[in-house]
Amino acid sequence: MTSPIEIEGAETSSALDKDSAPQGDAQAPKKKLEGRSPGQLMWRRFKRDKTGVVSSVIVLLFFLIAALAPVISKLYGKDPYTFYGQDDPTLLNEFNLPAGPNGGMSPEHWFGIDPNYGRDVFSYLLYGMRTSLYTALVATIGMVLLGVVIGLAAGYFGGKIDYWLGRFTDFMMALPNQLFMVAVMPVVVTVFVAPDEETPVYIRFLAITGVMWMLTWMSLSRLVRAVTLSLREREFVEAAKVAGASPWRIIRKELLPNLVTPIIVQGTYLLPSTILSVAFLSFVGVGYQDPTPDWGLMFATAAKIYEQDPTYMFFPGVAMVVFFVAFNLLGDSVRDAFDPKTGR
């Protein structure tokens, strides 16, 4: 019987012979092991979440449709600015309501026409989505940038900087956001345009994004500050300080990469609420004004005529519900992909 020592010796000598043998074509290629980055792992987890994938497709489709609104409207043959009810008196009845059934739905006007003017609802909805989505997107980007800067500065530097930035954040959070937006919007607009002059659309766009940017960054700032406070005591940050790295380099190279996850997740929750705020400002009359198409203006009109023409509220309502549900599900999927411990 062969002893274990002899077997071990034989295996050792066999391994030595293989190492000393010339490398030829007969030798099997070795598999190269490659690690995955956190982004690749996140993407792999996200692709396995069917709900997140479907939600992302729906959200991207909304943004794509909004971006291509002029092209779709041209192919459709209608635009949101023409008063079709005045060009064709048969489209509206004596009460300036759609004369046809279901809000005037027909092969020429797929979603019907609006009251008073007879504008095409389908093209108006496309342009209204475009206005609301991209206004909210710009405002959300501004909120995220401001919240990250203030949260990082407060969390990393600490001391008096943290104290005063914290008190400023507390003061801003104490303001009633929606009421303050309604009160501030007319003041901001009159700074640039005289009360007796018509306000250009770009002025309203800048006013809406600026006011929302200044009033809704606090929750993200608090989150970034809390995460930064825990990160600045970690070994890699201390090692960077010992190595002589500047605060800007530590923030850029050590802290920001570890803050990407909470920033993205919080951003996915901020955008739907910002869209709702943009629509709210137009709904109460201090946001966009006619003839600029907007989701909020559609709901404001629908609230006045829902008894006579309930169809007018149906299409913008369904579009907003679908978008909000899809975006909230997308936010949950992104959170789970970045941190699988918080899975639903």
Q: How would you describe this protein?
A:
By secondary structure, the chain is an all-alpha fold. 71% of the residues lie in helices and 0% in strands. It is built from 15 helices and no strands. It has helices at residues 4-20, 38-48, 50-67, 69-76, 84-87, 101-104, 121-157, 159-174, 177-192, 201-215, 218-231, 235-242, 247-283, 295-305, 311-338. α7 (121-157) crosses α14 and α9 (177-192) runs antiparallel to α10. The longest helix has 37 residues, at 121-157. It starts with a helix and ends in a 6-residue tail after the last helix. Residues 1-26 have low confidence and may be disordered.
Q: What oligomeric assembly is this protein in?
A: single chain
Distance between the termini: 59 Å
Number of strands: 0
Question: What is the element string, with H for helices and E for strands?
Answer: HHHHHHHHHHHHHHH
Calculate the mean pLDDT score and round it: 81
The major β-sheet equals: none
Helix content: over 70%
Rounded Rg: 29 Å
Q: List segments where confidence is low: pLDDT < 50 over at least 5 consecutive residues.
A: 1-26
Structural class: mainly alpha
